[in-house]
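Q: What changes when norvaline is included in the input?
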Amino acid sequence: MKRDFIDLWNLDPEEAWYVVRRTKDTKEGREELNPVLEGKNLALLFTKPSTRTRVSFEVAIDQLGGNSLFLQEGQLQLSRGEDVKDTARTLSRYINGVIVRNHSHTWLEEFAKWASVPVINALTDKSHPCQLLSDVFTLYERFGDGVKEIKIAYVGDGNNVCNTWLVAGGLFGLNLFVATPEGYGPDSYYLQAGLDLCNFTGGNIYLTVNPVEAVRDADVVYTDVWLSMGDDRDEEKLNALKPYQVNEELLSHAKSEVLVMHCLPAKKGEEITEEVFEKYADFIFTQAENRLHAQKVLLEFLFERS
Ligand code: CP
Ligand code: NVA
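A: The predicted holo structure follows.
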């Protein structure tokens, strides 16, 4: 049976830890990746812009021996109203796997249902599982198994990345505090999924509207843009998010050796100050680099089992 990766829970906790640990072993050269994509063609079907996800996947596919095709919706018959299910069935006859970045999670689920080849979520309005798989690796790389003991704070908009943090907290058994403003919280479906996973993994997820409470004594503070791709400019929302800006004052409540993470792209002056961004830039760009390392192992994992 094909293995899709639409949400983080498509991996069970043991599989998710396997991917994270193998990413460390392969990145550090102790283990070799299997060229599982030799002779295979993978499509990237993107309806939104991307720098990191697109490039890291294209390079990952190449390094695993495969070939990638970048497809934009506007150039496919999809843009003229061809059914999602017909597009999925057609591509499955030519292509060995599809990596999709789309505005609608429901669209992606429909696409995956009709595709007979593995489908990977490269970001939707609801979730960004490749980002979080890689981010947990970045923390594992820094903290080892201690990653389960540290306090991680997500501060900002309750968006796709925030939703996926909740699932990651549950799946990996982390200690996660999430601070979002009233009315801009994460999706309750993802919260429940994270909480359910915590029952198995011993993770803790705590939601608050108070950014200081989330950041107090935190080892890691994570943020993302206040307006995601596809969001209209919304002054009311931007005002509500102002107290959640990751700046020196907010970070003064965290541990002195706190690390700051950002999935990028960043809107400096909104969710993070330029000063804080530059102070933690080395870690933030290691986080970006790790997308490549984690996705290679994810591709290997999915294609060895599909
Ligand atoms: N973090 C991330 O997914 O970046 P891109 O939008 O550049 O792919
Ligand atoms: N929340 C952001 C993440 C970008 C990687 C967006 O959807 O635009």
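Observations recorded in class: The mean pLDDT is 98.
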